[in-house]
Design goal:
Blueprint lengths: L5 H20 L6 H39 L3 H33 L11 H5 L8 H10 L5 H7 L2 H18 L4 H21 L3 H15 L2 H6 L1 H27 L3 H18 L2 H15 L4 H14 L2 H17 L6 H17 L6 H12 L7 H34 L2
Helix pairs in contact: 1-9, 1-12, 2-7, 2-8, 2-9, 2-13, 2-14, 3-11, 3-15, 3-16, 3-18, 7-14, 9-12, 11-15, 11-18, 12-13, 12-18, 13-14, 13-18, 14-18, 15-16, 15-17, 15-18, 16-17
The protein binds aspartic acid.
Aspartic acid binds next to helix 17 and helix 18.
Main location: membrane
GO molecular function: symporter activity
InterPro entries: DAACS, Na-dicarboxylate_symporter, Na:dicarbo_symporter_sf
């Protein structure tokens, strides 16, 4: 019997995971069938994410080094670098502006009181994260021994070392052609392994979404309903209207074409809530389905997975305003500017792992004197919100690689 295409299998996996999860959510949590279901789903979900993480570091290392080395002419390298960073900053700025506008307009949290959440806040101790210290730490984590970075799975430091190695390969020219050929072959092998891992994707995605829905805390969903609706609605608007519009204006490509090529990565991002774990799939879709040249995709996608986070940036700003509302504090325009900038830094500094944005959000809250413990209120709903913001984070990287490819080829 011929199986349906991988894309269709993934879609079926996602829908059945959500549906069955919903059904199990209504059953008694002590029920043996629910326990068995959760246990099996955890095993499969962890296996899928472990496999993606297993290939992540060698893949990032090879793809960046080879990507940079292939942007041979110096001129082009400079242009790709500058265009990429400009795109990242601009798209995150639009996302934050949207988050601020929507929160000012809908005022989520205005009817709630901080006192309602004291229990949650009492058990939560926020780690101090003042901006200067955060910046110093961030800078300190960039240049480290590559072997340590590789073995610890430190994506940012691996990205930076691979960039430097790529530049050295370009400078050395013919002299290092063997090493370049070796890295090129290693990259091909990594992509082959990714395509094997993807065969497990329908089941992995089923298990991840099933677990997500079964374990979701439903009472918090209703209390924070308006905030959830504002965040999901605005993030969706960024993903469905703003990013496709940017793509169309710069490249003339239709949203449908993009969706067809990108869906494997988008559904994986939605279910794993991790840009890093999704990275192997993002690279595969960008190079193989969206036809971005490996040297551009190999550079823009891994860098984007660590620093370009539109969904997270939007969330950090919207959540800060939400907390201000329930604390009964009116943030002035100047304070909202501070939120704007710290949200961008917090999103750039957040690693591409589940709930990372929650941790760096402490910095945004502190920058305008809001109680950092208040993020305890958001923790029970974070796994849910993380799905869509990670999807938009990954989408932003893919759109970025297409726009950069177009702009540098002019
Ligand atoms: N989970 C997000 C990502 O991996 C980061 C965040 O928590 O906002 O892109």
């Amino acid at each position: 019997m011929k199986l349906p295409s991988l894309n269709l299998q993934i879609l079926i996996g996602a829908i059945t995971g959500l549906g069955l999860g919903w059904y199990f959510h209504g059953l008694d949590a002590e029920n043996a069938v629910v326990e068995l279901g959760l246990y099996s789903a955890s095993l499969v979900a962890t296996l899928f994410i472990d496999l993606l993480k297993m290939i992540l570091i060698p893949l990032v290392f090879c793809s960046i080094a080879v990507g940079i080395a292939n942007l041979r002419q110096h001129q082009q390298m400079h242009k790709v670098w500058v265009t990429t960073l400009a795109f990242f900053v601009a798209s995150m700025a639009i996302a934050i502006a949207l988050g601020l506008l929507a929160s000012n307009y809908f005022k989520p949290g205005a009817g709630l009181h901080l006192a309602m959440f004291t229990d949650a806040m009492q058990n939560f101790e926020a780690k101090q994260l003042p901006l200067p210290e955060f910046f110093a730490q961030f800078l300190h984590s960039i240049f480290i021994n590559p072997f340590t970075a590789l073995s610890q799975g430190n994506v940012l430091a691996v990205v930076v070392f691979a960039l430097i190695l790529g530049i050295a390969l370009v400078m050395g020219g013919e002299r290092y052609k063997n090493i370049l050929a070796l890295l090129q072959e290693a990259l091909e092998i990594c992509m082959r392994i990714v395509s094997w891992i993807m065969r497990l994707a329908p089941l992995g995605i089923f298990a991840l979404l099933f677990k997500l829905v079964v374990l979701q805390d439903a009472t918090m969903l209703t209390t924070l309903g308006k905030f959830i609706a504002v965040v999901l609605g605005t993030t969706l608007f960024h993903g469905v209207v703003v990013l496709p519009l940017i793509l169309f204006v710069f490249t003339g490509k239709s949203p449908l074409w993009f969706w067809r090529g990108a869906r494997e990565a988008l559904v994986t991002a939605f279910s794993t809530s991790s840009s890093n774990a999704t990275l192997p799939v993002t690279l595969r879709c960008t190079m193989q389905h969206l036809h971005v040249k490996p040297e551009i995709a190999g550079f823009v996608i891994p860098l984007g997975a660590t620093i370009n986070m539109d969904g997270t940036a939007l969330y950090e700003a919207a959540a800060a305003l939400f907390i201000a509302n329930i604390a009964g504090i009116d943030l002035s325009l100047a304070q909202q500017f501070i939120v704007f900038f710290t949200a961008m830094i917090a999103a750039m500094g957040a690693p591409g792992i589940p709930s990372a944005g929650m941790v760096t959000m402490v910095m945004v809250l502190q920058s305008v004197g809001l109680p950092a413990e208040a993020i305890a209120i958001l923790l029970p709903i974070d796994r849910l919100l993380d799905t869509l913001r990670t999807t938009v984070n990954v989408q932003g990287d893919m759109v970025g690689s297409l726009v950069v490819q177009k702009l540098v080829s002019k």
